[in-house]
Amino acid sequence: MASTTFSGPVTSTNGFIGALTGDVTGNIAGSGSITHATTAAINATATATAAQVATGYITSTSAAATAITLPTGTLLGAALGAVQGTVFDLYIDNTAGANTVTIAVAVNGILSTAAADTAGSFGDLTVASGVTGLARFTLMFSSATAYVFTRTA
After folding, report:
1. CB atoms near residue 49 (< 10 Å)
2. 116: enclosing H helix or E strand
């Protein structure tokens, strides 16, 4: 495969212009950031919808303690098009909140072995409020309808 360098705008007369869609396999290298174009707000104790979780970024600005229960593995798997081996990161942003957010898994969602063995880190399901109130959780699907849940940041 040849390597080509371009400068200035590039157009294709027989291809497409736009964002990459579909599956990406292999190694991805580079620098930059990921921006979540859509976020979901959950400001009271509730079960999150699959659509809310599928945004990948949930905010909470509640003054009261808030518990967010994730949807079932079946609903979430369908929303994400998950199959065995699908990995999905979920960010919880409680920086504008004034109380703790606690995450809970639902049917067909289980805590990973790391979460069960190390409750103080990988199994920490609470997100503090204020400047430290950010958390990343990873969901790994063992099938289209079941996921394992771990805190990863």
Report:
1. 14
2. helix 113-117
